[in-house]
Amino acid sequence: MLRMAKTSAGSATAAFQCTVCGWRTSKWAGRCGECQEWGTVEQTGAPVLPRAGLVPAGPGQVSTPAVPIGQVDATAAGPKPTGLGELDRVLGGGLVPGAVILLAGEPGVGKSTLLLEACAQAANSGPVLYVTAEESAGQVRLRADRVGAIHPSLFLAAETGVAALLGHVEAVRPGLLIVDSVQTVAAPEVEGVPGGVTQVRAVAAALTAVAKERMMTTVLVGHVTKDGAIAGPRALEHLVDVVLYFEGERHSQLRIVRAVKNRYGPTDEIGCFDLGEYGLIGLPDPSGLFLSQRVEPVPGTCVTVALEGRRALVAEVQALTGYNPAELPRRVTSGLDAARLGMLVAVLKRRTRLKLAKHDVYAATVGGVKLSEPAVDLAMALAIASTTANLSIPGDVVAFGEVGLAGEVRRVPGLARRIAEASRLGFKRAIVPAASGALPPAGEADPAEQTEPMEIREVANVTAAIAGSLGDCALDD
């Protein structure tokens, strides 16, 4: 027996809802009570749901009996490779049956191209349904011809209604469903415009329910806002199992798939692709893309090794300083954390003899890669010191370590993998934090990857690091 809670007559009045997180209230508010955003609460016209819903009075009938966890069959829940090695790396092995994946990225970054290539590979194992709600079927066919994604088991439909979409699912019975995009699919029986909070939540909930019922892998393409966040309610990210970001500069061919949520695999892996005229090509060894092709070293550059999951990426950090008599000199970054750059400039001004008080500081990475881990601090500091002193760091030197406010250089994880990757690419010397160990621990690095031992120099503070890479003259007044 179910009991319905009593509601007042005022609870059925027009409701107000936050367009960011979906928080609802019976009164207008200038600030959302959930996400604390200003100016996002709008009237929806839908009645406010009662605070207390249906409460079961007793135990109900179970769908399946509980069994010991050791007797649960997990073979059907294993991932199936997509045929794209870099995408499988991010997903944790491949597509899991019944999983709902949200792929978000800026317009034109290559989301549809990536999914078409994955569909063509997955169609070898069974029917695949690609539903486009933004383009016509002919437009998608032209793209598929260009990237070679034509397969007899790949079905294509152009629909904007969720009921018609589910009708195609019933007719095709695919093992993989692609919806491009979830913000343009509408549910007529739900109030609101397509792409609104209520509509997106209803469509995503319906597709998630069908995916779990049929054990059908579902990929939802999502739009992003100008701030880079996924458009629509935050609840959309909670409904799905995996959230992927497809990133890349508009003027660069490098594309990166990054997992920020994954119930079936790691969330710190990235997949690298090269976007060309005929589609995306996986880059299992992308380190060379993040280095400048120069014969002689140039002041203001330093090479570091960053970790993205288990992958070590050798990348170059560049810096440039210029005199500015203004009270507030500029601090500009591209691909680096602006807050950490400001901190490093303050540390260099206080803990070393570098004159940076009246200088603009610009710092950037090469190749469009984004480096956010603290291990990049030491390379940024050395690049700034190099351009300020107009001295070049030798081209065979790499540096990595976290710089503290006291000027100390702290240890970073994955020392062995960083040194092995740098040695594989031909670097001879490494500047690392003190007490890291002169050699990588036994068994942690692959001996076949290290062609010859590197010269390791351990430094305790940023002053010693500058002296070790540029010489003591870099710190002279």
Topology (SSEs and partners):
Blueprint: E1 2-4, E2 14-18, E3 24-25, E4 41-47, E5 54-56, H1 85-91, E6 100-105, H2 111-122, E7 128-132, H3 137-147, E8 154-158, H4 162-172, E9 176-180, H5 197-214, E10 217-222, H6 235-239, E11 242-247, E12 254-262, E13 270-276, E14 279-282, E15 301-308, E16 311-323, E17 331-334, H7 338-351, E18 359-365, H8 377-389, E19 397-399, E20 402-403, E21 409-410, H9 415-424, E22 429-433, E23 455-459, H10 462-470
Parallel strand pairs: 6-10, 6-11, 7-8, 7-9, 9-10, 17-18, 19-22, 22-23
Antiparallel strand pairs: 1-5, 2-3, 2-4, 11-12, 12-13, 13-14, 15-16, 16-18, 20-21
Quickly describe the structure.
This protein has 477 residues and is of the alpha/beta class. 23% of the residues lie in helices and 26% in strands. The longest helix has 18 residues, at 197-214.
How many independent structural domains?
A: 3
Major sheet size, sense and barrel closure:
9 strands, mixed
Taken from the alpha-carbon principal axes, the silhouette is globular
What ranges have pLDDT less than 50 throughout 5 or more consecutive residues? Answer: 1-14, 46-53, 438-451
Binned, the helix content reads 10-25%
Structural class: alpha/beta
CATH class annotation of the largest domain: Alpha Beta
Proportion of residues in extended strands: 25-35%
CATH superfamily membership of the largest domain: P-loop containing nucleotide triphosphate hydrolases
Within the largest sheet, what's the order of strands? 8-7-9-10-6-11-12-13-14
For the record, give the distance between the C-alpha atoms at the N and C termini, rounded to a whole number: 84 Å
Count of DSSP-assigned helices: 10
CATH topology of the largest domain: Rossmann fold
CATH architecture assignment of the largest domain: 3-Layer(aba) Sandwich
Specify Rg, calculated over alpha carbons. 27 Å
